[in-house]
Amino acid sequence: MAISDTDFERLRDFIYTICGMYFHSSKKFFLESRLVRRMEATGAKTCSDYYQLLKSMRGAEELKYLMDEITTNETYFFRNVPQLNALETKLLPEIVEVKNKMGFRKLRIWSAASSSGEEAYTLAMILLEKRTTLLKDWIIEIVGTDINETVIAQAKQGIYNAYSVRNIPEMYKRKYIREENGSFILSPDVKKFVTFSKLNLYDDSKMIFMKTFDVIFCANVLIYFDTASKSKVVQHFYNNLQPYGYFFVGQSESLHGVNDKFKTVHFPGGFTYKK
Ligand SMILES: C[S@@+](CC[C@H](N)C(=O)[O-])C[C@H]1O[C@@H](n2cnc3c(N)ncnc32)[C@H](O)[C@@H]1O
After folding, report:
1. pTM of structure
2. Residue 230 φ then ψ, to 5°
3. Does residue 76 sit within a domain?
4. How far, in Å, is the centroid of ligand 1 from the Cα of 176?
């Protein structure tokens, strides 16, 4: 079934107002195929029927399924090694020094748009290794959030496939991953530092409660937003980051033209942002 340009634009704009993801006309084929699947599953005969369903009392339920269809959830452990090295060797010791001076021995990290949890658990493994040295007696809180409830459920399970774990250095794999019948099961020692919940980054009423993070990762998600929706979300990250904290985006992303308050901090192989 083909969707007319007018119907495409109406549904595209609806999706944008809900979650900030913007589907340019060049993505019409992608969105169309996903919408058609949902129309078939719900019995909606026309795009208008489907649009009315989304706006009805049952809309919130249907939106969950639509989000499952239209979000891209690609992720894996140790995805951006230069970032992780910089965090471990330079930025984390800096943060710890500042917080030690203030007498706060608690570290809060947010993996925003965490998908199935690989980024959040990667950070947990790295921090876990510091529990006898830099982070001795520290409370560690890692929070993973995503709009897609299916990937959040997978993250909570902590069971992965070979593709996901392929970049984990041997030392971490030996300590924290157990293989069983072709699945890779994360140790409870890592899981206990991380909590996952559903959060729409475009929902101002929820974003204002995500306070006081020392480090925020928001990688490989804002590429799906337009400049206006990126700016809105990034402003929340700015507000929710501690003054001495760091904000990371994906390898091919930048805040150029999106936010001019964050300052760029370079490190070997990449950069991060600071207030
Ligand atoms: C490609 S994954 C990135 C995963 C991980 N951050 C990484 O870099 O490996 C993008 C994730 O963004 C999520 N996402 C898209 N729009 C979102 C929104 N408005 N709020 C929260 N999460 C969103 C998707 O569900 C998806 O899991």
Report:
1. 0.97
2. -60, -45
3. no
4. 25
